[in-house]
From TrEMBL:
Coiled-coil ranges per UniProt: none
Major site of localization recorded for this protein: membrane
The protein, known as: Type II secretion system protein GspF domain-containing protein
Lineage: Bacteria, Candidatus Roizmaniibacteriota
Transmembrane segments: 166-188, 208-234, 372-393
UniProt-listed GO biological process terms: protein secretion by the type II secretion system
Keywords tagged on the record: Cell inner membrane, Cell membrane, Membrane, Transmembrane, Transmembrane helix
Organism, scientific name: Candidatus Roizmanbacteria bacterium RIFCSPLOWO2_01_FULL_44_13
Localization terms from the record: Cell inner membrane
Keyword Cell membrane assigned: yes
Length: 400
């Protein structure tokens, strides 16, 4: 959401727009950055067309492309302002163009690039801001952005592979559920009257299907309420700390899927640590960012413990070893990297290793899911055929 605000900073009155989840979070951001808010209200432009705002929303791919383009231009010798001016003219998406224009305006008024990006936390997380700040401090912003772009592109590739592996089973299962719904709701009730008129002896498969059909036809409002309520309360439970921890713990123990989740988390953690440490960010600050960006609560808790131990003077490798959820290769290689002084390079190599492991895990999942779906689909179709065709066959046989 976008909010218009009027605020005072360094004795000057400023009127701009800010992206934030709520008005209170926008006010919090302004206060933390030295602004004194006078007025804040939701921008009404976004209410004009719901559909256009939905399709015009800034997504992860836009941020990846923006990072890559800025990095290329900076490394080609252009200034940051010139790079942003060029991008403003090239970008087609209006929300993206507006955001770049606002960032450009802030930089021209004397704000650092990292501070300008902070106005858009939905697009630029803390990891992104920290790396940009590090690049500004070291004078290597172009180089840092190139590494960040590589990181984001690899993250996009991993997400794309996962989506590609899951799209086939999702389509097949959805189609199967729809066919079952049509059969139970429309086909079976009509056949039921035919069976009753001719007093045909029904097999157990047909009786089960008829029972399900009668129950669904009679109590469909209750079923919708129960299913909807169950989904609602499950989502609420998963949003709690206990619920999320329980879900994450179970997901890590799942066959094949658990391995994918674990390896994906390790890819993100090692790659992010490598980039941050290579950019000159301290290990403690890097661990703080990892804690914020890690999606799995089990790994998040582990990194919280690791940060506390590193803060007390323990090495990163020893801290990883004591948690018990990290593979031995990560522990051993981290210790080697610390001893040789090449921790960032070692972590980068580890991230590539875990990437290859994730590809193997995704292929294993695809290999496992496809025959399972075929078996379930065949069993479902066989059950429907037996339930519907067998009584009709018995009926025709009785007339011969």
């Amino acid at each position: 959401m976008y909010f218009k605000y009027k605020a005072i900073k360094n004795g000057q009155t400023i009127e701009r727009e800010i992206e934030a989840a709520t008005a209170s979070s926008a006010i919090d951001y302004l206060k933390k950055n030295g602004y004194f808010p006078i007025r804040i209200e939701e921008s009404k432009k976004q209410e004009a067309n719901i559909f256009s705002s939905f399709f015009d929303k800034i997504n992860f791919n836009d941020v990846v492309d923006f990072t890559r383009q800025i990095a290329i231009m900076l490394n080609a010798g252009l200034t940051l302002i010139d790079s942003l001016e060029i991008l403003k003219k090239q970008i087609v998406k209006s929300t993206m163009r507006k955001m770049i224009g606002d960032i450009d305006q802030q930089i021209k008024s004397g704000e650092p690039f990292s501070t300008a990006l902070k106005k858009y936390p939905a697009s630029f997380p803390n990891l992104y801001i920290s790396l940009v700040k590090s690049g500004e401090a070291s004078g290597k912003l172009g180089e840092i952005l190139l590494r960040l772009a590589d990181n984001l592109e690899k993250e996009r590739e991993l997400k794309s592979r996962l989506k590609g592996a899951l799209i086939y089973p999702v389509i097949v299962v959805t189609a199967m559920v729809m066919v079952m719904f049509v059969m139970v709701t429309f086909v079976i009730p009509k056949l039921l009257g035919l069976y009753k008129d001719f007093n045909v002896e029904l097999p157990w498969t047909t009786q089960i299907l008829i029972t399900i059909s009668e129950f669904t036809t009679r109590f469909w409002p209750v079923i919708i309420l129960v299913v909807g309520g169950g989904i609602y309360f499950l989502r609420r439970y998963l949003q709690t700390k206990i619920g999320k921890e329980s879900f994450d713990a179970v997901s890590l123990r799942l066959p094949v899927f658990g391995q994918i989740i674990k390896v994906s988390s390790l890819v993100d953690a090692t790659r992010t640590l490598a980039i941050l440490i290579g950019a000159g960010v301290s290990i403690l600050d890097a661990l703080n960012i990892i804690i914020e960006t890690t999606g799995n609560s089990i790994f998040q808790k582990a990194f919280l413990n690791i940060r506390a131990k590193v803060e007390k003077g323990q090495s990163l490798g020893q801290s990883l070893d004591q948690e018990g959820i990290f593979p031995p290769i990560l522990v051993q290689m981290t210790q080697v990297g610390e001893q040789t002084g090449n921790l960032d390079d070692t972590l980068l190599r580890l991230s590539k290793y875990f990437e290859s492991e994730s590809e193997i895990a995704i292929k294993s999942m695809t290999t496992l899911i496809e025959p399972m779906i075929l078996v379930v689909l065949g069993a479902g179709v066989g059950f429907l055929v037996l339930s519907v065709i067998t009584p009709i066959y018995n009926l025709t046989s009785s007339f011969q």
